[in-house]
Design a protein that fits this description.
This protein has two domains: 106 residues, Rossmann fold (3-Layer(aba) Sandwich); 93 residues, LytTr DNA-binding domain (OB fold (Dihydrolipoamide Acetyltransferase, E2P), Beta Barrel), CATH 2.40.50. Helix content is 22%, strand content 30%. It contains five helices and 13 strands. The strands form four sheets. Strands 8-7-6-10-9 form a five-stranded antiparallel beta sheet, with no helix packed on it. It has a three-stranded parallel beta sheet with strand order 1-2-3, with helices on both faces. A three-stranded antiparallel beta sheet has the order 11-12-13, with no helix packed on it. Strand 11 and strand 12 form a beta hairpin. The chain is elongated.
């Protein structure tokens, strides 16, 4: 049995795509991409893995889990509870193909509806172009040109290789339209394009800074998003 760990939701999605695991343990709250968002994506695949949620919040532990092919673990996880889950998973995986229950998409979708997360039957296409003000003109910016976004009062500043533009869309609304694999929120006021991240640096106060390719400024990473860079 091979066990692989991910530091955040974005990395988890990449690993799942690459390894196609039979079982996935997901924390409901993860940086970058929540466990619920990730599960909503997985349940639309041809051969979704069996998903075990972990959570510290009892309200997520719906009775529907007890009758599905996946399970939940309430934190702090008790060894005997984990053992029961592992035994159920082994029995499921060792069963003949015709008898082995697959992950029940309808059960997962029902859970997501109860938690207020719409199942991603057809995920919206991430933002590709942005119309932004630049002086007295309006510029059409390809999303690939963006180095990072920064909240600027009621506006959002867009930093590009060749300048800066301004849009009226708040950062929180903009985030909903971005591909989370390509754009990482590193601070409540900053979202950076992953392709432009050169590395990280820790200062004498212990704060993590993101270094950018071809740019001199560094972006501070808040504590809530440090896990994104644990593997770097």
């Amino acid at each position: 049995m091979r066990i692989t760990r991910a530091a955040n939701g974005v990395q988890a999605l990449d690993l799942i795509d690459a390894l196609a695991p039979d079982v996935v343990f997901l924390d409901i709250r993860m940086p970058g991409l929540s466990g619920l968002d990730l599960a909503a994506r997985l349940c639309t695949g041809d051969k979704p893995p069996r998903i075990v949620f972990t959570t510290a919040h009892e309200e997520y532990a719906l009775a529907a889990f007890e009758h599905a092919a996946f399970d939940y673990l309430l934190k702090p996880v008790k060894p005997e509870r984990l053992q029961r889950t592992v035994e159920r998973l082994r029995a499921t995986l060792q069963a003949p193909a015709a008898a082995a229950p697959a992950l029940a998409p309808e059960a997962l979708q029902a859970l997501l509806r109860q938690l207020g997360v719409a199942p991603a039957a057809s995920a919206p296409t991430p933002l590709q172009w942005i119309r932004a003000a630049q002086g007295h003109e309006t510029r059409l910016i390809a999303i690939d040109e963006v180095v990072y976004f920064q909240s600027n009062d009621k506006y959002t500043s867009i930093y590009l290789a060749d300048g800066e533009s301004l849009i009226r869309t708040p950062l929180s609304k903009l985030k909903e339209q971005l591909d989370p694999q390509q754009f990482w929120q590193i601070h409540r006021s900053v979202i950076v394009a992953a392709r432009h991240v050169a590395g990280t640096r820790t200062d004498f106060r212990g704060r993590l800074h993101v270094k950018l390719k071809g740019r001199s400024e560094e972006l501070v990473v808040s504590r809530n998003y440090v896990d994104l860079f644990r593997q770097m």
